[in-house]
Amino acid sequence: MTTNLRWRRVLLKLSGEALMGSQPFGIDPAVVERIAVEVANAVKLGAQVGLVVGGGNIFRGVAVAAKGGNRVTGDHMGMLATVMNSLTLADALRRQEVQARVLSAVPVPSICETFTQRGAERYMEDGDVIVFAGGTGNPFFTTDSGAALRAAEMRCDAFLKGTQVDGIYSEDPKINPNAERYTELTYEDVITRNLKVMDTTAIALARDNRIPVIVFSIHTPGSLVDVLLERGRYTVVSAA
């Protein structure tokens, strides 16, 4: 079924923390299942979906460097955490009868396929959901930057970032309830106002490839489909 979607081919970025639910760390199977249902509903409407998930619920590479360890080693460990989360999401999607494939920038051939742009393009055209694991495959880059890179490589119509809140605010609304909520911003607004929605490299990649960034709450039921149909609450970051 193909519906009149505003954005048909999208890259959905989730933080690793989004998979924790109310737990202090790790993976909450109920949360993963709910996210899989959201993605499955989008696919049923005709969306082509790529997914990138962080690894912060399992391991943060920067934590190693903060304690005097080797940052490269820490980032490699963080990449492996994203592979674990990606496998979990792909398994949940298959339970929703959605064909899902994990493609990793870090080769782990006994566990999942290694990412190539041509292979990912072919799978996405076939209607498979691609879970991109391993970040960019390089240290010193965040999974936000990895997601923006994959969105550009896959020629996505939009880069969707599912967060804890329903858009971009002037400050953290959980700390300041009076923070201003934005419905539209430019890429330059996000950079010059130092809005902490994602790192500057990710925003610059989206800007240079003219990919709108849509920020919404992944915890609101039906929010992914609402975004694709231009409903609900979200912030759009674009050139104008």
From TrEMBL:
EC numbers, comma separated: 2.7.4.22
What would you give as a GO molecular function for this chain, any one? Answer: ATP binding
Its activity is regulated as follows:
Inhibited by UTP.
Q: Which domain of life is it from?
A: Bacteria
Transmembrane stretches, start-end? none
**Record-linked InterPro entries:** AceGlu_kinase-like_sf (IPR036393), Asp/Glu/Uridylate_kinase (IPR001048), Uridylate_kinase (IPR011817), Uridylate_kinase_bac (IPR015963)
Keyword vocabulary terms for this entry? ATP-binding, Cytoplasm, Kinase, Nucleotide-binding, Pyrimidine biosynthesis, Transferase
Q: Name one Pfam family in it.
A: AA_kinase
Q: Catalytic activity annotated for this protein? A: UMP + ATP = UDP + ADP
Q: Which residues bind ATP?
A: 13-16, 56, 60, 163-164, 169, 172
Q: Name one GO biological process term.
A: 'de novo' CTP biosynthetic process
Question: Where is it mainly found?
Answer: cytoplasm
Which residues are recorded as binding UMP?
A: 55, 75, 136-143
Q: In which pathway is this protein known to take part? A: Pyrimidine metabolism; CTP biosynthesis via de novo pathway; UDP from UMP (UMPK route): step 1/1
Q: Function, please? A: Catalyzes the reversible phosphorylation of UMP to UDP.
**What is the similarity comment for this entry?**
Belongs to the UMP kinase family.
Report the protein name in the record.
Uridylate kinase
